[in-house]
Amino acid sequence: MPEDALIHYKRISAWCETGCLEYFRLLLIVGFNASTLQTKPPTDRKTCIMTPTPPIAPHDHKTYMRYALEQAKLSPPSPSKFCVGAALVDADANRVLSTGYSEELARDRPNDPGSTHAEHCCFIKVADENGIHDFDIAPVLPPNTVLYTTMEPCNERLSGNRTCVERILGLGSAIKVVYVGIREPNTFIQDNQGIKRLEAAGVKVVLLEDDETLRQEILEVTFAGHEKRG
């Protein structure tokens, strides 16, 4: 590790031990630049910043999607689910508020049964930081909060539990833009209408499907634990 990176690592670890591993793994993805690193903890807790801000240029949506993909890689492979990653970002401040991946957090939350999807985990972390339910995080989110998710938010669940689309819309206008890596494959749900429903409700959805390399990387991680596709 370069000497200047080590210095910044020690400074960051003093206030955010759990975030450092994610932070420096991202450095390997986007390249190290010491001048971009945050070395002081955030002071305004109302902004719900959960992790060190990665060294990503503002509005670099593909790199943020790769960051979400790194979260997806942490999801336990299984033939009964997809491995999805997500990141909740304050676009104005270029700060990551929280991250999540499929089944990262314990299932069957109070008054909210079922397993936790990546987007849901992002919301739970903000909620826990503020001592509220994840249904009620809208007032503590920054005005220009956006969501990056490697796969189209679910609009239907075989379990019948609350969908990610319902969770996003349940926050009112708190999340105005959702960046999506791929549409949901038809493995479990035929013709998921997540993107269509979000757009119908006034949420802007940006599907980052013009980069075939990124798309294939997302698909490979998404299907981790499934039988090899032909």
TrEMBL record:
Residue intervals of the CMP/dCMP-type deaminase domain: 59-191
Cross-referenced SUPFAM superfamilies: Cytidine deaminase-like (SSF53927)
InterPro entries membership: CMP_dCMP_dom, Cytidine_deaminase-like
Domain of life: Eukaryota
Family matches, as Pfam families: Inv-AAD
Name of this protein: CMP/dCMP-type deaminase domain-containing protein
Organism: Podospora pseudocomata
Source taxonomy: Eukaryota, Fungi, Dikarya, Ascomycota, Pezizomycotina
